[in-house]
Design a protein that fits this description.
Length: 116
């Protein structure tokens, strides 16, 4: 019973995505010209090499921001059902926040939050 429901939902999702993609390709306006093929950044044509190396600190800072942002979003559903969960739910969220704070302390100690 559960497997049949899963297969039905999965096939419906795949079929819906395929139909919407095909429909978008059929009715989307198309215009091709040479100017659209040129690489640019903020409307100003690039000079020299477009590919350049960035410090890994930028990526690490962005990943840490996303990680803590997504983990914070997990607190909103918990807050809506907090009374129904009881003390077990409170302990699980305290443990979740403890792990989150440990990750923040580790990143701070390693210097990942310094913007230089």
């Amino acid at each position: 019973m559960n497997f049949t429901l899963f297969v039905t939902v999965a096939l419906t999702g795949i079929l819906f995505v395929a139909i919407v993609t095909l429909l978008a390709r059929l009715i989307a306006p198309r215009s091709f010209n040479a100017q659209k093929e040129e690489p640019y950044e903020c409307g100003i044509p690039t000079r020299g090499r477009s590919w350049m190396q960035f410090r890994v600190g930028y990526y690490l800072f962005a990943i840490l921001f996303l990680m803590f942002d997504v983990e914070t979003m997990f607190l909103f559903p918990w807050a809506t059902v907090m009374k129904a969960m009881g003390p077990g739910g409170l302990l699980s969220v305290i443990f979740f926040l403890f792990i989150l704070v440990l990750g923040l302390a580790y990143a701070w100690r390693k210097g990942a939050l310094k913007w230089q």
